[in-house]
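Inputs:
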Amino acid sequence: MSVFGDRVVRVEDPKLLTEGGTYVADLRIPELDGAVHVTYVRSTMAHARISAIEADDARQAPGVVGVFTAADVDLADLPAGSPMFNAAMTRPFLAGDTVRFVGEPIAVILSERPDQGADAAELAWADYEPLTAVVAPTDALTDEVVVHAAAGTNIVVDLAFGRTDDLFDGCEVVVTQDVINQRLAAVPLESRAAAAAWIDGRLVQWASTQHAHGARDVLARVYGLTPAQVRVITPDVGGGFGAKIGAYPEELLLGWLARQVGRPVRWQETRSENMVGLGHGRGQQQTIEIGGQRDGTVLAYRLTVLQDGGAYAEVGSILPYLTRMMAQGTYDIPKVEFNSRSVITNTTPTVAYRGAGRPEATAAIERAMDLFATEVGLDATELRRRNLIGKGAFPFTSATGTTYDVGDYERSLDLALEAAGYEALRTEQRRRREAGDVVQMGIGVAMYVEVTAGPTAGKEFAKVEVEADGSATIYTGSSSHGQGHHTAFASLASEELGIPMDKIRVVHGDTDLVASGEGTMGSRSLQLGGSAVHEASVGIVDKAKQIAAHSLEANPDDVILDKVAGRFHIAGSPTIGRTWAELAQAGAASADPLTVITDFQASQPTFPFGTHVSVVDVDTETGQVTLVRHIAVDDAGRILNPLLADGQRHGGIAQGAAQALLEEVRYDDDGNPITSNLADYAAISAAELPSFELVAMETPTPVNPLGAKGIGESGTIGSTPAVQSAVVDAVSHLGVKHIDMPCTAERVWNAIQAAHLTKKGVA
Amino acid sequence: MDISISITVNGAVHQDDVEPRTLLVHHLRDGVGLTGTNVGCDTSSCGACTVLLDGESVKSCTVLAVQADGGAVTTIEGLADGDTMHPVQAAFQEHHGLQCGYCTPGMVLAAVSLLREQPNPSEVDVREGLEGNLCRCTGYHNIVKAVLAVAGGAS
Amino acid sequence: MIPSAFDYVRADSVDAAIAALVEHGDDAKLLAGGHSLLPLMRLRLATPAVLVDIGRLAELSYVRDAGDHVAIGGLTRHHDLETNGLLGAEAPLLRHAAGQVGDPQVRHRGTIGGSLAHGDPASDLPAVLLALRATLVVTGPAGVREVPVDDFFQGFLETALEPTELLTEIRIPKAAGAGWSFQKFNRRAQDWAIVGVALVRNGTTGVGLVNMGSVPLRAGGVEAALAAGASDADAAALAAEGTEPSADLNASAEFRRHLARVLVGRALTQAAG
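Outputs:
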């Protein structure tokens, strides 16, 4: 297809740039006229019994229309997030007799204006009887304090895949290391927001979500409605990164609140609420064990994970399953063991966040390879090269049962090292070491393979319709929240239909207009949503040919589409034809609209891969790290629009580097969050980053007609371990072997001091 | 007690009575009715609310509407000249300097102000000049490219 | 996000501002650029009943040559300091440091007077004024008085300002040709300093420390050692003497002390070069 590789600027941009997007808080529509504003009152304790909630003063406050607590809410319990979860670990809409994390909603205020809600919220408070807060996952594991009494344990999921004591028998070298993959906040620039109204007996909800149909189905269940009695509409969404996949209790309760007051309701949280209320990402404590021979052959790898699930069982608790899937990364390691346990703690529940389980896998195996390389005295890239899964080995089934589709890992390594000028970097590093420079250089190389449109084979819906004026409308089950789907899908359709892009509309995120949809997550949208659009487009051309043939009294095989003119005619007789508009009008007249619906089903997930090289300066007197260069090779199969693909890579690299260097959600020992605003949480800015050096590489996948894999999370997965590796590498000559993320100045400085003392024989 | 204010927004005079505690960003969004300017945080950290006040970038969440009385505000809606995008807007599209768009109005206006004060910035100048504007989607790479492209093309 | 309600008074002169402060007493806070006060009010950590807006007093925004010193009006914005030629010639340390405060949007609103009156030990400018041995001019109902900078910062967020006084002028002794250095160590560019050092070498050496205690501090040990003829290295080793750095999210007290020593050493070298 010629459209692949075309750099096309986005059709979404003119409005976003000249008016701004229309996000939930921007909606000024008749359906929300007279809406009351919703303000949640949140727990200030991590773990406590509530003996009473004092809300009378709040009820009397100016502009307050109603105040409700759990005692008032007569909805059935929310369904558990997974059949693997103990139902007792499910979140309530509002905390009842026990609060389990700081920020958990305990009451809700409805007011005429938002400022009145903020004022009234100060007048509502709870009588707390403090309970011991369980904050550290290792403490949670002891079950000394059980957060959900009815569950009897803090363990949510125990993924026990077996542990053999002889795993490392025959290994000349075994290296072990404890590693932290720290808790992060997604920080979409738009905090959570939603609005709800009952219209003609139906529940209509506007949501800042990644998955409208998922929200619709949960709402239907909560309110005892059929899905057809619920409509979810997705306006523009200001970022999601996985944390806006599932619907939160604050949103799910809105329909009930609207019913209580007989008016529409709207809710917009503040950033401080978002930092404790939006699900957090990552949160794994890992033990890596890697064994092999002195010649660099890796024979066995064991990864043991303790996953912090937060206060209630959400998707974060089962992400270790994906960590296991990708545990061995790009390496042909014959024996791999993985075990994990997810535990409840008195903290914000964990959910998916860009990479969702796979960055954790990659960071672990890459740390393991670096440590093994150091132990056997091999260059880190040479060690990797010796253990890579070969180009001819695909489809390759890993030791944990994951079948990778296609890859050329060594080539990605070669391209990255060449683009980085690896040898010259090592020369400069040697020079600085010999000179004893204060500012040392570190070079980190990380390789990754990850699973997209998974973990099991995925599907997506598309409907393409040609209108009476010859324009086309695409209805997609994908749900863009910044990725540029409208541009991508319009270009795919335009390629097949010969209808120009500016005459193609794309509709997403409205469950009344789009029959079904899986939403946007897991880097699935181009390969599944795009494949569906492509198939529907091919299908509608076929259908149009049939109609044209009938109309022209010809054999459909003799009808061709002149894509330049947007017109069907009999081969060899171009003067007699039918335009798209004419065919659409004919279809409308005969009550058979020119429409094709496709449910595209992939046979399996796909596995993008790549190599990242990171170059850092480390000031050895202060520990300060500066990211100087970052080179990335990300192979996601055939690239449709390099502008969009590169943008995804940039954004992913920035978030990944931020994990390595700056960001961490922290709690004190009592479970109080201490990074719960953007001044304290170090969300990365332009000043901390360089421009990135992206290298193109495309190994098409046979899995779908586009040959495309996902790219949305690759940047994050590949960059974090490269940056961390570079920081350790910068001071490895001083004896430092490991620094946990984020590699803050103090952490780096402490590592240097500790290594110095070890050398002196003191520690 | 409400205070009477008069603010010129995108060239049009708006007279309103506001509570003193009304933040300029809320006044612009709800009082004046221009929802392009977004609220991204509550600690003056993210810059999504950036507008021009008398030609200079300010965080409209950290300015009271009463402080802007008598002033001239430019929001994202007032930057283009009719159907012609401002060079910074055009460059953001050309170089894919936006994805979800939520930080974009503030980022564009911060860039406009930066270029007025530094017509010929280096890459470091641009990155430091945008230190008060957070973006989660783009990784800043294309934003910086767009701003440098405008600077490079300035006559 | 939304501050508590308050009454608003706009002062059209210094006298009017003082009168309003006298009238409302402890209920009132001055509003200049608002970039120290409004963030606190938005989180409801500050809930003044009355704001007296002095932001329009253009007569308090100036940078003037006053003979042996540079006189700066209290309402001069950081942005105006950062771009001021006179300051660049006579007190480049202050001009440079003003350009490091917050981010460009903050600098378009925040004022030197507002920053000093707030008295945050983590702010950049108080340490700069300590290094420059500035004098602060305070105006109140009883008239005008001068306060040496060493007497100005009295406790955590407490200054020598009475509730009815304004900081109307800052006087910086001229220091053309003096060596200077500003070392701001932070996590991200927009963040407060984890530790900062403001240093001027002009015969004697003035060293102010950012975020090394509950008040802006002078590195007295360093200054005394240099005055007694110590080497730069030996003097820098005393950077943490007399300081009480806190342990917080961003650093331990021990790391702050270490940073102070390193940064003072670097500042001395840069100022000598």
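Remarks. The helical segments of chain B are 24-31, 87-94, 104-117, 123-129, 141-153. Chain B has five helices and five strands.
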